[in-house]
Specification:
The protein has 416 residues and is an alpha/beta fold. α1 runs parallel beside α8, α4 packs parallel to α5 and α6 runs parallel beside α7.
Length: 416
């Protein structure tokens, strides 16, 4: 028998880290005989007329029969929407908890991000003997960016190399990583032994960008991340990063809420850990292999549906590096880290790019097929593939050669 209902207020649940956070809440509440009610919307962007209507869903908890509220306030990008919800929370009489934020009338839970970055910086110093280490973090006014940078500074001070400390404030996005790679390549920033990135997006971008300037990772510069994104495992090399934070936050939120509600508990919130991979100079082939299997399994789930569509964003989106944003906005599954094609089992009419309907996967008999040929992150060029398959050109169909997770795959498609 359920003891009560707890509402979770969270913007659109896009990726695995969002799901990990919600899972931490759900599992913990279930173990304590509470139901979980998740209130979410389809987007996490600034509101327009349509989204204002969608976001009315966040008013429902205040009209429902619930016993407490957890708000993932650190995940809301739309500040006006966030403040609107917070005002309602401050007025209501229900027990409430905020995630990675605190207000005068509402208690918050915080992950020890400082220690996590301290630990990963310590790994670079003690295991790899690096001394000249840079920290690339988020905006200087951002609390999380500051906390993570403090962990790096503390580690550098402990091991007597604080004179080499250099914190670069960025944007938690691709842009700051690309700029730093360019500055290092030009000599504007002296080449460090290692760079501690305080999120995975910047770490992935650096691993992709530095080789363009003939700087190898980790041979020339070691890189580490923070978040535990699965995409760090299919980057080349796979990235050493901090994992488990979102699962911990989910459990911590429930524990803190129970304390406010006067409910005794013995909830083990767990702790973050460092997932060691190749970007720091270590090796962990098993983790990388498991990641490819996970992505391949997810892609196959979509491909097993009756209707499957392939999407390729237009050149402006690809040039801007907005790979994750396009997947989030349209709820698409990316084929692989460096394959900028996406899968879905539904047709998107207003997609900003090209679309194909999949007819067959790895067709065995191609002798009688006439098709245009495209390759994306595939071992053969279109010309080489056409010669191998002995296919004549035609605009009626398209054969797309691409990597699905880490496996070269052929898709026979019809352009929409």
């Amino acid at each position: 028998m359920t003891k009560g209902k707890i509402a979770v207020l969270i913007p659109a649940v896009y990726d695995k880290l969002d799901k990990e956070f919600v899972s931490g809440i759900y599992q913990t509440l279930k173990e304590n005989s509470f139901d979980t009610l998740v209130f979410t919307s389809v987007s996490n962007e600034n509101t327009d007329g349509y989204m204002c209507g969608e976001n009315n869903i966040y008013n429902l908890p205040f009209l429902s029969d619930i016993d407490g509220i957890i708000m993932a306030s650190n995940r809301f990008y739309d500040n006006s929407l966030k403040e609107s919800i917070l005002k309602q929370l401050e007025k209501c009489k229900l027990p409430c908890i905020l995630v990675e934020e605190e207000r005068e009338k509402i208690k918050g839970v915080f992950l020890d991000q400082k220690k996590s970055i301290y630990d990963i910086t310590e790994h670079l110093i003690t295991v790899h003997n690096y001394e000249n280490i840079i920290c690339l973090t988020g905006p200087c006014e951002n609390t999380e960016a500051q906390k993570r940078a403090e962990g790096y500074i503390c580690a550098m001070e402990k091991y007597g190399i604080s004179k080499n400390s250099k914190v670069i404030y960025g944007d938690f996005w691709h842009n700051s990583a690309i700029r730093l790679a360019e500055r290092i390549a030009s000599g504007e920033v002296s080449r460090p032994d290692a760079i501690v990135c305080t999120n995975d997006i910047m770490a992935i971008s650096l691993c992709n960008e530095l080789p363009k300037h003939n700087i190898k990772v980790p041979d020339d510069i070691a890189i580490t991340g923070y978040d535990g994104s699965i995409y760090t495992l299919i980057t080349k090399p796979a990235i050493t990063t901090v994992c488990g934070g979102d699962l911990c936050l989910g459990k911590m939120s429930v524990k803190a809420l129970f304390e406010i509600m006067g409910i005794e508990n013995s909830i083990d919130c767990g702790k973050t850990h460092i997932r060691i991979c190749g970007s720091c100079g270590c090796e962990n082939d098993e983790e990388e292999k498991n990641a490819h299997c996970t992505l391949y399994s997810e892609s196959n789930t979509i491909l097993n549906e009756k209707e499957t569509y392939i999407y390729e964003p237009n050149a402006a989106i690809i040039k801007a590096g907005a790979y994750k944003l396009i997947a989030q906005r349209f709820e698409l599954c990316k084929m692989a880290q460096h394959t900028h094609l996406y899968l879905a089992n539904y047709l998107i009419e207003d997609f900003p790019g090209r679309r194909w309907r999949v007819i067959a996967i790895n067709p065995k008999d191609t002798k009688n097929i006439r098709a245009n040929i495209l390759t994306r992150n595939y071992p053969l060029t279109p010309e080489q593939l056409r010669k191998k398959l002995k296919i004549k050109d035609s605009d009626t169909h398209t054969i797309i050669g691409a990597r699905l997770a880490d496996k070269p795959t052929l898709f026979l498609c019809k352009k929409i």
